[in-house]
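We include the entry.

. . .
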Amino acid sequence: MTTKKYNRKRMLNFRRSPAGLIIILSLVLLAACQDPFDLKTVLGLDTGVLSVSPNGAAIADNASQQFTVSGGTTPYTWSMYAGPGSIDAAGLYTPGVIGVATIQVVDLAGLSGKATIAIIDSALILPLNLLAGTTTLETGDSITLFATGGDDPYTFDIPTNISGASITPLGGFYTAGPGAGVDTVRVTDNLGAIVTVNITVTPATIPDVDYRPITINSAIPAVIGGAITADFMYENIGTDSGGTAVSWSAYVSTSTDLSGVVWLADSGTVPELSALTASGAPQAIGGVWPPDGGNYYIVVHLAAEADVNMVNNVAASDEATISVDYHTSALPAGNGVQIGSPLSVEFDLSNQGTVAGASNVVWYAYISTNPGLGAGDTLIDDGNFTGLLGTDAQPQTVTVTDIWPWIPGNYHVILEWVSADDPAGYKEKASGAFTVSF
């Protein structure tokens, strides 16, 4: 018996021949006869629904709108289904006239999608505007922004969000974030118009109590060792009400703060104050001035348990000077004085300072042809007296005696004085002119 052998490889290569392709196609058609059958599925095409965006939008007649499609199988073909305008191959619609248009897109498999768009007269659309009651907020504060003009609905967002803020997309309710910075809030209307506004967010102010003294009045001149006559007002510049009484201390200081040499003059308490209010009546300050001369200030310091801010708690009065200050008044002029006749001129010296003089006052008298003391003027008399009391004490009369010059002319008697207590040193005063003749 003879066995017949077949070439298996050759038998399998029938697919490469035209007859093989016909067989494959026949098998596909055979499958197509089975129920159900969808050629799009067999060919690998997307059979989903085409979704066109936007749908139901509105634009001005001088604007344009870009449409997009999702689903289906590329390529897509755009066309006008109804209404005015035109659309290009990329889906960019141009209206041209007022009305309502419907655009259509068809994919490779023949699926289609539609979207409508309204075209509005641009002359009837007011400019879009974004209104904010304030553009400065503290962290955590909120504000509602309002859009006007344009075409609603409006959409709000924060393209530049430094503070970490939030906003309701349709309501415009903005809440500043926990950080400080400048946020940019944007509104977009239905026509695509955009307006922005910047909101500055600052750190939140913590409610506090902050007392400070104001209007410190002090009677001047001050008298060494004398009673202090002064008073002060105070205020709470904080944003919270003080819960306890306020303690105060009044010092005599050589500076406008407590950094100089100080003496405690008086102290006490005053009532608490509500936020951002001032006291209604002045608080009197007692005590005495120091035993030494000098320039002094009344410095008031406030303290309260609720006041943790010590920056503004000290204030000073105007300067008060305590010193020795000798003066004399001008003398009248004289006529009919004969040459060589006795000279007798009186000066009244007084201490106009606030400190009693402890050192002697030494004086010198000169005769001069000028009202000012010069190097060539002649000393005609001198003397001294003990220090004078200050302020309203009685003056000391200084009597200058000599004889008038033997040469006719106009002469002045000049008194010069000095005291170790008077910080001004040497002082002088000239009389009026005396006419001396034969």
